[in-house]
Amino acid sequence: SVAEFVNDIGISIYEGYGLSENTAALSLNYPGARRFGSVGKPLPGVRIEIDKTVEGSKEEDGEVLAYGENIMIGYHNLPDKTKESITGERGLRTGDLGHLDADGYLYITGRVKEQYKLENGKYVAPAPLEESLKLSAYVDQIILYGFNRPHNVAVIVAAMPAVEKFAEENKMSGSGPSLLNEPEIRKLFQEQLEHYGKNFKSFERPQNFALLSEEWSIDNGLLTPTLKLKREVVEEQFKSQIESLYS
Q1: Predicted pLDDT at 1
Q2: Which domains does the chain have, with CATH numbers?
Q3: Element (H, E) at 61
C-alpha cells in the first residue's frame, strides 16, 4: 500500500479518525500500536461499536458508532438532526461504514449515504475502490455507479498527459481527447482497472467504463469547495453516458 511504501522510505505517518461532532480524535495509530489500513484503536475514554443493522459491502461492516464524554450534546437549534445523529445512549452515528478487527483496530470502508445496492442485493461502498483505482497514473478522477443495476460501471476522467505520453511511446497517431476512442487506450484502461481493482470483490469492480478528458472542478460545479465529488450532480450530468454503458 501507499502507507507501507512511505513507511519503508523512512517517513512515519500515523493515521487517526475523528469528526467535529466528537471534539477531537476517536481512534489513533501510534508507535508500538499500528496497523496499516486501519485508523487505529479507540483512544482512552472512547468506545466504538459497529451497528450491523446498517449493512455494508463486507459482511463485517456496519455504521461506526462512538461513545464517550467527548461526544457533542447535539446540533444547536437542530433537534431533528440531533435525533438522527445521537442515539438514546448518547452514541454518535458517524455516518461512516467500517469494522473492528479481532485486536480492536478500526477500519473505515466508506460512507453510509454513498453506498448503494446492486440488482442482485449486494451492497457497494464505492469510495475505497475509487481511491484504489485513482492510484493508476492514467486515472485522474472516477465515479462508480450501479444503483439497482446488474453490475457496476465507471465514468473516468483520464489523466491526459499520461495518456498522450503512452500514445507517443507506442507510436499512435492522434492526440488530445480523440485518443480516448482508440482501442489501444481502452485496452490500457481495462488493464489498469483490473490491476488496481484486484483486491476487491468481482461484483464491486466496474464491468464497463466511459472515458472523459475534461476534469471535474469547483468551477464546473462537480466538486464542492473542499474538493469532494458531488455524486448526484455528476451522475445527472453524465446520465446518458452511464445509460450507454448498460446497453
Answers
A1: 67
A2: 2-112 (2.30.38.10), 116-244 (3.30.300.30)
A3: none
Per-residue pLDDT reduced to its tens digit, 14-66 = 999 999 999 889 999 999 999 999 999 999 999 999 999 988 777 899 999 99
| 128 in Cβ contact with 115 (< 8 Å) | no
Q: What are the tens digits of pLDDT across the range 177-230?
A: 999 999 999 999 999 999 999 999 999 999 999 999 999 999 999 999 989 899
Counting Cβ atoms within 10 Å, is residue 109 exposed (0-12), middle (13-18) or buried (19+)? buried
CA distances (Å), 37 to each of 1, 98, 178, in order? 8, 12, 38
136: its cell numbers: 493508476
141-173 in b/e form (b: 16+ CB < 10 A) is bbbbbbeebebbbbbbbbbbeebbebbeeeeee
Beta strands 208-212 and 153-158, pairing class: parallel
Is 161's pLDDT higher than 80?
A: yes
- Cell of residue 246, nine digits: 448498460
Considering Cα of 157, then 161, then 162, then 168, what sign does the dihedral take?
Answer: positive
Q: What size, in residues, is the chain?
A: 247
